[in-house]
Amino acid sequence: MFPAPNLIVEVLSKSTTKNDRGIKFEDYQAHQVLEYWIIDPLKSMVEQYRLDTKGIYELILKAKKGTLESKAIKGFTIPIESIFDENINLETLEKILNTSA
To answer: Which of 47, 57, 61, 88 could form a disulfide with 38 if both were Cys (CB 3.0 to 4.6 A apart)?
Structure first.
């Protein structure tokens, strides 16, 4: 038996949306995955869920802009726009790499 991951990120598509928001959401919650992100590329939006003290997912963030900060990965913070914009993505990646060097 393997431990559950601390963070799972799903990118929605027409064929996966129902499973990502349904059975996978429930399964990850049941297995106590600390944090679950759902990325909707068509709406350029991210949803961030975290387990509350009762082990139930709570919607922490649903946004197109701003900052996405993981509690599962200490110190991991990115601009939401970097998920959807290639130039911002490259700038963010460069900052992350320079910070960790």
So the answer is: 47
Q: With bands split at pLDDT 50, 70 and 90, how would you rate the model's confidence at 56?
A: very high
86 within a domain of the structure (yes/no)? yes
Length reported for the chain: 101
pTM: 0.88
Please, is 91 exposed, middle or buried when counting C-beta atoms within 10 Å of its C-beta (0-12, 13-18, 19+)? middle
- DSSP states along 49-101: EEE-TTS-EEEEEEESSSEEE-SSSTT-EEETHHHH-HHHHHHHHHHHHHHH-
Indicate the number of domains in the chain: 1
Digit-coded pLDDT (tens) for 58-88: 999 999 999 999 999 998 999 999 999 999 9
Q: Which two tokens stand for residue 47?
A: 């949803």
Q: Is residue 1 part of a domain?
A: no
- Which domain range does residue 24 map to? 7-100
CB contact at 8 A, 15 and 31? no
